[in-house]
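Amino acid chain:
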Amino acid sequence: MALTPSSMLPLGTKAPNFCLPDVLSNELVKLDAVKSTLATVVMFICNHCPYVKHILEKLLELIQTYQPLGIQFIAINSNDAHHYPQDSPEKMRELALHLNFTFPYLFDETQEIAKAYHAACTPDFFVFDKALACVYRGRFDETSPGKLNSPVTGNDLRHVLDNLLENKPINEKQFPSMGCNIKWKP
């Protein structure tokens, strides 16, 4: 595990389109077909990363709060499943069913989408407005598995989503996510 920060995609960047298989529905999902008219959150996660595991419960709670308000969440796993079998589509499906994911969990086998988004780590969050312009990229909150005095809150992401829903400006001072590096294919 190599602790890696987000690469911080430039604000205003248009969300790269994709067409990836959803491990839950076994159908191809296109960004243009599932984007929200309010905000779309693209999350690069995986099954095995301790940083993802650390926030997953609170992330799912956050999603349950904001999905009914019209915000779309999309999770993408771009890890090399050959060398990291816990991140295979079969294991992704098991996790998604076990935790009752209510959002697409997509597998980026070629890793082209991670590269298009400049995703560097798991978890890595990108929030796009109704025009699919990047308004946020970075961390869930300031917590990490080693910070015992820092509870998992999702405050960084929550603040952005609240501002989008209330048509308030998004603070451009944003902090990179820190997590496991995406497991790139050789």
Notes: The mean pLDDT is 94. Residues 50-66 form the longest helix (17 residues).
